[in-house]
Design a protein that fits this description.
The chain is α/β, with parallel strands linked by helices. Helices cover 49% and strands 12% of the residues. The longest helix is centred in the middle third of the chain and has 27 residues.
């Protein structure tokens, strides 16, 4: 944990100014003390954990209050936005709609569906980009193919800033900027703001691209210490050092030829031993010539033997040193080059970051366009009204799963438009009919629309949703001492205390975790509070059919039901939502489909019939009705299993009982088999069984 001093706003402001090397933070906006304390504590934490190697932190940008749809943690979990309830990414909305080709585009998609915009101008601009690419499928395909070759510049830039990068990260910056320039040239969309801005951010990097092109080989190694990443011809000193390292003998041979030409001594040799290192050797017959002026000024005498005389030169001594140190020197020069290139990249970190974001924006727009074209999605109308009209809406995740099995998804309409009055649908129908799917799909359609994408519907008109709340399904929270019902009530309380008149609320089976009358009372009161106080748009699914009477008492509340059909005792789910109320819940039929023993199902039918008969006859108290049921008066007798009928012992059984298997031989056993077979009674067909 950080010390209290890390959260001091005065000290935080000094740390932030030092980080961005400015005298005041006013250039970035006006921040209150709480914001300064939070930013300062974050910087202090990074400085502590990264041991002084501060990551690349861009200047702060304040997000406008109400700039994004508010989605709480319970709603994110219930709607399975980025992770399925069963765990993992598969089965989530993100997995179903991700058509991005780059890592940056995938991260941007996750942020967009996690925080859909409420800014109408921004929503319309993003939709226009998607619509432009939907109308140009060839351009979209070319863009997606080009994007697939663009590396992750954001991650490369972060590693370089933390001094954890390598030559391959520099090559990634080069490839990303080069590919970005090619993508910008493909875009001709001056009137589409999102794409035009992205194209502009992808240009203007020619100087850095040329520098990296000249300095780096095509496929550099991963680590700086491996060397070999600098292109030939970029640094003369490095080229010479490499030549010495790789072609030492050839360099010595060329120097020897130069010395022969200079002295006129054809027998001159450059040799090497462990005592003298490299030296020049001639026969003694040339000693007088080599020791006389002007050669004696250049060739320094080192040793005389019986038959040879040996010399050195300043150039040869320097060459020897360079040859012996060439490998280490080459690596040292390359480290210096890497440091210079890294500084050049980090000096342009801002424009490079903008280029990376531009690639992600284009990638997301192209992915949305590919999804819309392939799945038949439509552009929604999003405005400042309180409308919520969906025609032919579908659940993107469920539809994807059904297509894999060759089945079709049943589309449904939803209309929550009622002007200034609350707009609530009270949805009834049996389990397994599709109520929860219907609730979730409309919430997901709102998210996709405000994320800037197209939606799975034939037509959609959505007034901006300020807050999205979902209370669908629940589990206990044993670590915090909460039962399933308690968790449900906490989530419901959060909705009732926060939802405004532009919120969208979906509630499923409120009150089912307690006694019937308690649950009905709670659900009834929640519905009235949503209508009278929150005055929001809502979908409310319930099995309490008594609540359907609210549609006649509360303006803006309508009944809807998911239809089913019965055929020869079987229940058939049609998955169609229509206006009206369900006549019953078909719970017993669903229980039979789930595999309950037939005796249990039949007993349930009998009890249900008596309960319904009691209601029809006006039985006032449930207890009085239950007293008439044998189930509650005394336990129903469980029939004992029938004992098998006793039959007279057959001749075969008598014969076998009289045998001692250990006392007969193999031949006797074979004869016994034939004997027993003859004793068997004849089959109806006349042959032995």
């Amino acid at each position: 944990a950080l010390a209290r001093g890390s959260f001091d706003s005065a000290g935080a402001e000094k740390r932030l100014c030092a980080l961005w090397q400015v005298g005041t933070l006013e250039a970035f906006g006006t921040f209150d003390r709480a914001e300064l304390a939070a930013m300062g504590a974050l910087v202090d934490y990074l400085d502590l954990t990264q041991k002084g190697r501060m990551p690349l932190i861009r200047p702060p940008v304040r997000e406008a209050m109400g700039g994004a749809m508010q989605i709480d943690a319970a709603t994110r979990r219930n709607l399975e936005l980025t992770q399925a309830l069963s765990g993992g990414r598969e089965g989530s909305l993100l997995a179903a709609i991700d058509r991005t080709a780059t890592a940056g585009g995938a991260r941007l998609l996750e942020r967009r569906i996690g925080a859909p915009s409420r800014d109408l101008d921004e929503i319309h601009a993003r939709q226009a980009a998607v619509a432009h690419l939907v109308a140009a499928p060839r351009l979209t395909a070319d863009l997606r193919e080009a994007l697939s070759r663009a590396p992750d510049m954001d991650r490369a830039l972060s590693r370089l800033a933390l001094e954890r990068g390598g030559p391959r990260d520099l090559a990634g910056i080069r490839a990303g900027l080069t590919q970005g320039a090619a993508i910008a040239a493909m875009l001709d969309c001056g009137d589409v703001r999102v794409l035009a801005d992205a194209a502009r951010d992808l240009t203007g990097h020619d100087e850095l691209i040329d520098l990296l092109d000249q300095a780096l080989v095509a496929e550099p190694p991963l680590l700086t210490r491996d060397g070999g990443f600098t292109a030939p011809g970029y640094d003369d000193d490095l080229d010479e050092t490499r030549r010495l390292r790789d072609e030492g003998r050839g360099v010595i041979a060329r120097m020897q030829a130069d010395y022969i030409a200079e002295t006129g001594v054809t027998s001159l040799k450059i040799k090497h031993n462990n005592v003298l290192g490299y030296f020049i050797e001639t026969t003694s017959t040339h000693a007088e010539r080599m020791l006389a002026a002007p050669l004696n000024e250049r060739f320094i005498h080192r040793q005389t033997t019986a038959n040879q005389i040996r010399f050195t030169t300043i150039e040869l001594s320097e060459l020897e040193t360079r040859i012996l140190n060439a490998r280490d020197r080459a690596l040292e020069i390359e480290r210096e080059i890497f440091a210079r290139l890294t500084r050049a990249v980090l000096d342009r970190a801002g424009p490079i970051g903008q280029a990376a974001r531009a690639l992600a924006e284009i990638d997301l727009s192209a992915g949305f366009a590919d999804l819309a074209s392939g799945q038949g999605w439509t552009r929604p109308k999003v405005d400042a009204s309180r409308a919520f009209e969906i025609e032919g809406g579908r659940h993107p995740v469920v539809e994807r799963a059904l297509k894999r099995k060759g089945e079709a998804f049943v589309a449904n309409d939803c209309a929550l438009t009622s002007g200034e009055t609350p707009a609530i649908w009270l949805l009834t129908g049996p389990n397994m009919a599709g109520k929860s799917t219907f609730l979730r799909q409309n919430a997901l359609i709102a998210i996709l629309a405000q994320a800037g994408g197209f939606v799975p519907a034939t037509r959609a008109h959505i007034g901006v949703v300020s807050q999205l709340f979902s209370r669908v399904g629940a589990a206990d929270d044993l670590a915090r001492g909460r039962s399933t019902f308690m968790v449900e009530m906490v989530e419901t309380a959060a909705i009732l205390n926060q939802a405004d008149d532009h919120a969208l609320v979906i509630l499923d089976e409120i009150g089912r975790g307690t006694a019937t009358w308690d649950g009905l009372s709670i659900a009834w009161a929640v519905m009235e509070h949503l209508h009278a106080t929150n005055r929001c748009r809502a979908l409310f699914a319930t099995h309490y059919h008594e609540m359907t009477a609210l549609s006649a008492r509360l303006p803006g509340v309508e009944n809807a039901t998911v239809t089913v059909r019965e055929w020869e005792g079987e229940v058939i789910f049609l998955h169609e939502v229509r206006k009206g109320a369900a006549d019953r819940s078909y719970g017993v039929q669903v229980a039979r489909l789930a595999g309950l023993p037939s005796a249990v199902v039949e007993r349930a039918r009998d009890i249900l019939h008596q309960l319904e008969s009691g209601e029809d006859q006006g039985a006032g108290r449930p207890a009085a009705l239950l007293d008439d049921l044998p189930l509650f008066r005394a336990a129903a007798p469980i029939p004992a299993p029938a004992a098998p009928a006793k039959t007279a012992a057959s001749a075969v059984e008598d014969r076998l009982r009289g045998l001692n298997p250990d006392a007969i031989s193999a031949r006797e056993a074979l004869n016994l088999l034939y004997e027993l077979r003859e004793m068997l009674p004849e089959s109806p067909a006349g042959s032995a069984r």
